[in-house]
Design brief:
Blueprint (H helix, E strand, L loop, with lengths): L8 H13 L3 H8 L3 H8 L7 H11 L3 H19 L14
Helix pairs in contact: 2-3, 4-5
């Protein structure tokens, strides 16, 4: 499935968990057992969800670790597609019998 402008996981966390419930980033960081600066970088989109963070997010906020990683992959791929210049990249032609 091709998404148009998928959210960064940090944006999703901010919009779905923090803002509606009045939860602070420090509260979540404490539950995640990470420094507040680490979590703030994530919710500001300055860092990505690692497998380890996906497991922590799953425990603290819910959803599966796989869903957190999929969200990150969708966002990262969308950003890469916007940035990369494929003009000089050619498809490899494979010989068939």
């Amino acid at each position: 499935m091709n998404m148009h402008n998928p959210p960064h996981p940090g944006e999703f966390i901010r919009q779905v968990y923090l803002e509606p419930y009045g939860i602070t980033s420090r509260q979540v960081a404490k539950k995640l057992k990470v420094s507040p600066s680490t979590f703030i970088r994530l919710i500001n989109g300055e860092s990505n969800v690692s497998p380890e963070m996906a497991i922590r997010l799953s425990r603290v906020l819910g959803r599966t670790p796989e869903s957190w990683l999929t969200m990150q992959d969708n966002y990262s791929l969308w950003v890469a597609k916007k940035k990369i210049d494929l003009s000089g990249v050619e498809k490899l032609e494979l010989a068939t019998d």
